[in-house]
């Protein structure tokens, strides 16, 4: 189990965001990307990305872009994408493996923001 410093993990998340094509990033509106050490109990109630050992790697909480109507946005709290550090560190592998899994998790959760379901995300190779 490789443990990253908070700075290393934050850099891995930022690198993952930076790897997303600009045309997709430009469409991210009213969404916050958050890093947390571990998921809270209520996080397990949502549809998140889980590792093979059942750890929650990331979670999108919000209203997908495809489900929004003309009234969305005024006074609404931002959607959140949370990336969990501890579950990534518990994955088998080295630093590079964790960085790659962070990238997959970030892309996976952003895909949910754009309205993709688990099957569509899986077909893209990000499940």
Helix-strand blueprint:
Elements: H1 6-18, H2 22-25, E1 31-36, E2 48-50, E3 56-61, E4 79-84, H3 85-89, H4 95-113, H5 118-123
Parallel strand pairs: 1-4
Antiparallel strand pairs: 2-3, 3-4
Helix pairs in contact: 1-4
Task: Describe this protein's structure.
Strand 2 (48-50) and strand 3 (56-61) form a beta hairpin. With 127 residues, this protein is α+β, with helices and mostly antiparallel strands. The chain contains 5 helices and 4 strands. It has a 4-stranded mixed β-sheet with strand order 1-4-3-2. It has one domain: Zincin-like. It has helices spanning 6-18, 22-25, 85-89, 95-113, 118-123; strands at residues 31-36, 48-50, 56-61, 79-84. The model has no long low-confidence stretch (mean pLDDT 87).
- Please give the domain count: 1
What class would the helix/strand composition place it in? alpha+beta
Q: What is the CATH topology assignment?
A: Zincin-like
Helix-strand pattern: HHEEEEHHH
DSSP E strands, number: 4
Keywords, separated by commas or semicolons:
17% strand, Zincin-like, alpha+beta, 127 residues
Task: Please outline what is shown here.
The protein is α+β, with helices and mostly antiparallel strands and 127 residues long.
């Amino acid at each position: 189990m490789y443990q990253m410093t908070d700075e290393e993990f934050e850099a891995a998340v930022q690198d993952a965001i930076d790897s997303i094509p600009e045309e997709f990033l430009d469409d991210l509106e009213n969404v916050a990307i958050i890093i947390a050490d571990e998921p809270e109990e209520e996080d397990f109630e949502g549809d998140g990305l889980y590792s093979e050992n059942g750890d929650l790697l990331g979670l999108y909480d919000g209203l997908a872009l495809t489900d929004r109507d003309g009234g969305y946005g005024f006074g609404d709290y931002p959607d959140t994408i949370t990336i969990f550090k501890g579950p990534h560190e518990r994955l088998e592998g080295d630093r590079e493996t964790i960085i790659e899994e962070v990238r997959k998790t970030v892309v996976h959760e952003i895909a949910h923001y754009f309205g993709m379901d688990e099957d569509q995300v899986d077909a893209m190779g990000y499940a």
